[in-house]
Structure formats: structure tokens, C-alpha cells
Design goal:
Blueprint: H1 4-15, H2 23-27, H3 31-37, H4 54-73, H5 80-109, H6 113-125, H7 139-147, H8 155-164, H9 166-171, H10 183-190, H11 202-212, H12 221-230, E1 234-236, E2 252-254, E3 264-266, E4 269-271, H13 276-288, H14 290-304, H15 311-323, H16 328-337, H17 352-362, H18 370-379, H19 403-420, H20 426-434, H21 440-447, H22 452-460, H23 463-466
Antiparallel strand pairs: 1-2, 3-4
Helix pairs in contact: 1-3, 4-5, 5-17, 5-18, 8-13, 11-12, 14-15, 15-16, 19-22, 21-22
Amino acid sequence: MDDPALAAAIAANRFGLGARPGELARVGSDARGWLTAQLAGGPPRLQGSELRGSADILSQALELRRERRDARADSGAQNADAAVVMKVAQLYKPIYVDETTARIREALTTDRPLIERLTYFWTNHFAVSVDKVAVFGLAGSFEREAIRPHVLGNFTDLLLASTRHPAMLLYLDNQTSVGPNSLLARRAARRASERRFGINENLAREILELQTLGVAGGYTQADVTSFAQVITGWSIGGQNIGRFTGGALGQFVFRPEMHEPGVQVVLGKRYAEDGVEQGVAVLRDLAQRPAAAHFIATKLARHFIADEPPPQAVEHLARAFHDSSGDLPTVYRALIGLKECWAQASAKFKTPGEYIISSLRGLQIPENYADKARASFALLGQRIYAPGSPAGWPDRSADWDGSSAVMKRIEWADALGQKMGTHHDAAQLAPQWLGAGMSAATHTSIARAASGSQALTLLLTAPEFMRR
């Protein structure tokens, strides 16, 4: 990091969300200090009185589902079922709109862009998707309640919060997972007319494979099954499951009648029967395993350095994670201190979401534009809160730089350039966005542009702006 000007551009564009006019000057000659200062204090909260808690949302949704069941039982109400489905859609859609609007607004205006980027990283790590109807109204509250409060905390707390959040339980179907020897399963077996219940391994598998140890983390199928049995009964209050009810409506609840009793062995360690604490103990141990430290370190290094991160950088981050027992600010400071993070500008190809936000921040689009900006994410292939799987959105260039995807990006940039080009001077914006990372070719092409609109389009499609 011999060139302070280049370091400022890297700080704002790779660690941040894209430089706004004047931001590189504020970074100044101490890029690391600018980033480290953002770690001080609590994590920022999204603003908006319209944002609702997950328990409130689920309570209303559960009431609508009860109405739907009653309608099905009433043979004279043929159209009631369709009406209730419409009511559920009417409940969830404005919630999604409010959540995504608040999220975009924060991205456009934040003075702590590193924290926002880290929030997106962890939301993607603990991925849930609105493509599953049950999660459509909850993805935003999941980020606000389980991710944001712990971004500057400890990984163990982040893992516990995400696992117990209703959105995660619903997304991976754990709310109805029943141990084969539980009270509920045994009672159902005695009654031929009652539905059969079984164990669901989705949540256990994804915690091991995608959230802690990684696919090469040393666990077996037997560990998945044992862990799945440990977290049977981790459910959501207010639902009637096998004629058992309990817990606060819409909130996490441990249901002992669904829990598989007895000792369980996970990764060679015996966990005594201790109700909900049995699962908490497994999660705490998973968070502290060396494999988890290496897995998280690899993902952070891939996100902030390169698609194939240097092994020595990964090991440095893994040590920081392990030695601090998962203290995330300690890991972030180790990341900021890595020389590999500062060795090359524009090393990572931006995802569509990163590209959109950096463009709008650079143009200082008013925050009331956030609602209109939502459609751009879907248009460019990264609809907010809609990763294609529990693995989250991919984080390698090859997943985003295909010819069709790049063409859509160019068309979007051209439309934005046509709309905004007469209001912005690209020649003045370019050095404020890219700083010392701007190439001579980009400088020349913008200077020779036939119009303000063309100049802005050229800036938005410059190779170094496409990357971070």
C-alpha cells in the first residue's frame, strides 16, 4: 500500500459500496484508519417506522392460515380459500417493498459502508430466500433481527441468532421436524388416523456444510442425522402441530414433545439430553472448531481479495478467528491489515447488486429513489433477498461476467446515462469514483465522448468501474 491515493480508491470501492463524490478525499491518506473507525460503536439500524418485526408478521400470517383452514372446512365457502391466499399476498408484498426500500436507502446514504457490506456478506452466508412463500415476508426482518445486531459481535452469537430465527426455521423446514422417538411421534404411531411425523435434516446439513465447517469440514452423514435429532423441537410458537400448541405467536419456541430424547454424538462428542440447551451446545462447539475458522476465513478472503484467495491470507484470518474465539471485529481488523487486500485495485468483478449500488451512490441519487431502484436488481439478475439456494449468491467472477449478463449491465448503464447524463459531468465524476484506479484509456474515452450521456455511460461501463 505504497500509494495512498490507490489505497483510498480500494477502501471506498472494495471494502465500501462505491465512492461518492468527495468520499475519496474524506478517506485521505489513511485508508486503513478510515475503515477501522467504522468498526467503532454499534451497528447502524435501518430507519423506517413501517418496518415490522418477524413475530408481528408471522402472527398475522398465522391468523390468515387459520382463516384458510376454516374456509376449507366450510363447504359453503367455495371462494373463501382463494380470498385468503390473496390476503396473504397482500400482507407480504408491501412488507417486502418496505424492507428492500429501507435497505437500499441505507446503502445510498451510509457513512459506514464497510458495515453495510459486511451485513450483506453475512446475510448471504446465512441465506434465506423470498422465493419460498413462507419466507417472503420475513427475509428483511431476518436481516434486521438476526444479522445486523451481531455483525460487530461474535460469530457464535450470529450463528445462534440466525438458527433460531423463524425465517431460517421456515426456509429449511425445521419447524415441523420431529424426533422418531419423541412424544409426538410415539403418540401418532398409536393412532392410525393421525398424520405421521418425521425428522428433517435440511437445517442441520446446511449449518454444517454452508454455515460452519464447509463441505470438507470433516463431518459425516451420521453427524448430520445426529445433529438434526438434536434440533428437533426447534420450532415457531402459535402453530398447532399434532394437536400440540405452545410458545408466543410467531416467535422461536422449543417444543419438548417434538424433541428426540437421549444422548447424541456429533463429530465424536457426546451431548447429554438437555432440552434446547443440547442444540445450543452443539452450535457453540461448531462455531469454535478450526474447520469453521478456516471456512469463514476463506469466504472473507474470497470476497475481499480475489476469487482464489492467497493461502497465507486465509491462514492469517483463520488464526485471528480462532485466537479470538470468533470475535468478528478482530477478524475484520486482521482483514484490513492484510497486504493482499491492497495489492491490486479492481480485483473482484462486481455482482449486479454491488454494481447498482455503486452506480447510484456515485451519482448521489436521492434516497427517495430507493423504491424505484428495486426493479434494477431483478433486471440484472440479483433480486434482493432471493438467492437461488441456501448457499447464497455466488462470489466468483465467472458466475457474473457472462456475455448475456454483461450485456444487460451495459444496457442498464446506457439507460441510466441517457437519463442522468445531462445532469452530471462524467469527466469530473470519474476521478472521484475511481481515483488512482482509473486507467488512461477510461480517461481518454470519457474526454472524447460525443455527449454528456455517452460520457456517463462510458464511465458506468468502464472495466475498472465494473470491478472493485
